[in-house]
Backbone:
């Protein structure tokens, strides 16, 4: 008889583990107890080892916790067949992205899941998400993934897109890694590069700036002192105001003078920025702005934290940001 697979379930918090009667706010509760009571059949899929990493609303996730989480997973991975991370949906895509850069050479699945309604509720989506996540952690691709509403997404390609519906995630620029419907179908897995290793360092002094019509250039420039890296979420192909006093070009000039690597991504949901298409983009390129291609804003920012955690040389920083390190961007 085949050996039952061993799965480590690392709990970080989120709605799936919360309790409370609406309209009162939900609060973090004892998840292991509810889990064993509400989804005993998980034990039929795998031997689940449950560990509480934290019990927070994922709005309180932060780089220091990502590093600790990656280190914990790296230490435990040799003893298990896969890992499920239970996590709030609000920042799940950020955490998945961070883990994808920090856990290199993965040979086993690391699957994040959560839910829109707590596990204890009758119409919860947590039950199926947990069953699917444990299934994907035993049989799915060896990547950092998000499993939600019967889909498996590459972690660093995912975004939370809905607050009230069960299909809360999407992967706008990359097809799902799997579908867990009546049949379970996985796509081709990415080949790991190099031996399994953890890269936990992150540079926290970065900023994600969303451009909007009328953005005051002086206020935008005020974020630059003390900054180590900047991601700009421009309009469309990577555009921003360039006319007269409202021009943001002085921001790019100053960022360059201060040696702050600046990455451009888009506010548009799909496709890649193209900085050669319009005057603004071309002026940004001239000022050394790095194209974020089709990376999500979440992934561009986390990747910048990761790269700056290890590299200081501007040419190397640029090369790493432009490269596809762990499937996070499409390269020609
Ligand atoms: N605020 C919650 C969290 O991210 C939302 C959720 O889990 O769906 O922790």
Residues:
């Amino acid at each position: 008889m085949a050996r039952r697979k061993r799965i480590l379930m690392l709990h970080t918090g989120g709605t799936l583990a919360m309790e409370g009667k609406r309209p009162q706010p939900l609060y973090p509760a004892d998840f292991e107890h509810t889990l064993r009571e509400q989804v005993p059949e998980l034990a039929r899929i795998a031997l689940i080892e449950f560990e509480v990493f934290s019990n927070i609303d994922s709005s309180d996730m932060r780089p220091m916790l990502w590093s600790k989480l990656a280190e914990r997973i790296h230490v435990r991975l040799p003893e298990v067949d896969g890992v499920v991370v239970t996590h709030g949906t609000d920042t799940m895509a950020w955490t998945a992205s961070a883990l994808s850069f920090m856990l290199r050479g993965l040979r086993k699945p690391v699957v994040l899941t959560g839910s829109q309604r707590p596990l204890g509720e009758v119409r919860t989506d947590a039950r199926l998400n947990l069953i699917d996540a444990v299934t994907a952690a035993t049989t799915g691709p060896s990547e950092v993934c998000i499993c939600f509403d019967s889909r498996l997404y590459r972690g660093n390609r995912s975004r939370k897109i809905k607050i009230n519906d069960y299909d809360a995630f999407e992967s706008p620029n990359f097809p799902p890694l799997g579908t867990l419907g009546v049949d379970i179908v996985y796509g081709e897995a990415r080949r790991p590069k190099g031996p399994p290793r953890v890269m936990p360092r992150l540079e926290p002094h970065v900023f994600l700036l969303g451009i909007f019509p009328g953005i005051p250039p002086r206020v935008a420039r005020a974020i630059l002192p003390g900054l180590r890296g900047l991601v700009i979420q421009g309009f469309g192909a990577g555009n921003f105001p360039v006319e007269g006093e409202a021009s943001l070009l002085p921001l790019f000039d100053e960022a360059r003078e201060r040696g702050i690597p600046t990455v451009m991504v888009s506010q548009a949901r799909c496709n890649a920025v193209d900085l050669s298409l319009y005057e603004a983009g071309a002026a940004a390129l001239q000022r050394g702005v790095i194209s974020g291609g089709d990376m999500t804003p979440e992934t561009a920012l986390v990747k910048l934290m990761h790269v700056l955690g290890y590299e200081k040389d501007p040419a190397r920083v640029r090369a790493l940001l432009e490269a596809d390190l762990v499937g996070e961007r499409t390269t020609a």
Notes: Residues 63-76 form the longest helix (14 residues).
